[in-house]
Amino acid sequence: MGQSTIPSDTVCYPAKLVHGHIENLLSKNVDFIFYPCMTYNLNEGNGLEEGAVNHFNCPVMAYYPELLKANIETLNENNFIRPYLDLNRRKNAAETITKCFSKFKLNSAVVEIMLERAIKSLKEHRRNIIKEGVKIINQARKEHRKIIVLAGRPYHIDPEINHGIQNILTSLGFAVVTEDVVAHMSPVPKLDVINQWTYHSRLYRAANYVTTQADMQLVQLVSFGCGIDAITSDETRAILERKGKIYTQLKIDEISNLGAVKIRLRSLAATFGG
Ligand code: SF4
After folding, report:
1. What's the pLDDT tens digit per position in 136-153?
2. Where in the chain is the domain with CATH 3.40.50.11900?
3. Nearest CA residue ID for atom 5, ligand 1
4. What is this structure's pTM?
C-alpha cells in the first residue's frame, strides 16, 4: 500500500513497511497518528553495558516521521503528530507530550506519572520475555537439542519482516530464543567499533554470551539496506569466530522465496546438529 511514497528503494525493509502501515491507518480514518522522532532509545544501563558510550536509535528509526511527512501528501500537522521525545528525560518528555496534545488539556504531572507506569510495564514485559526464553533453554537442554539465538531487533518480530525464519529453525530441530533473552547475561566484549546503539549493544552482548555456551549458535537477521548492520555484522562475526563459533547471517528483504535461507540453515544444522 505504501509503495508509491517510498522515496528510496535502498532504505531498509522495516522502514519500507512503515509506509504501508501509515496508509493503512489513514484508510481507517483515524483521528491522528502519533509517531515521535526519537534520537535516543532507552538507556538500558544494567551494569553490563560498560563500554557503551551512548544509547542511540539508528538514524532511520530516529527520524523516519520527518521523511514520512515529507513524502506522504495526506499527512499534515493535524493528523500526524511527531514531536522529538527522549524517554530518558521523563519530565521533559511529559512536557512535550502535554504541549503537542494541548487540545486535550492534559496535566504534565499526570503524564509524567503515566510515563513512569509505562516504563515499569515495559520492564516487566522484558522480564517476562527473559523468563520464557530461559524456560525454552532449559527444556532444550533436557531434550538434548541445540539452541539458536536468533538475533535482530524488536521489530523483527513482525512476521512480514522475519518471514517465519524461526519456524524453519524449529523444523530443523533447534530451540530458538531471541537475543534479548541472553544479552543481559554477558558484559560487552572487546569491540573495534563505538558501542552507541541500544539494540546493537544487545547484539554484541548476546554474541559474547553464545561463545560461552557449547550448545548455542547465533544467527543474525540483517535487513537489506541497513547501513548500521554493515558494521554490526562484521563485529558480531569477529566476536563469534574469535571463540570458534559459526557466524550465520540471513539477509531479509521483501523477497518471500526462502530457498537460500533454508540452504544456509540446513548447512548450519549439518555442521552443528539440530
Ligand atoms: S537499524 Fe537498520 S534495519 Fe533498523 S531501522 Fe535502522 S537502518 Fe533500518
Report:
1. 999 999 999 999 999 998
2. 143-272
3. 61
4. 0.92
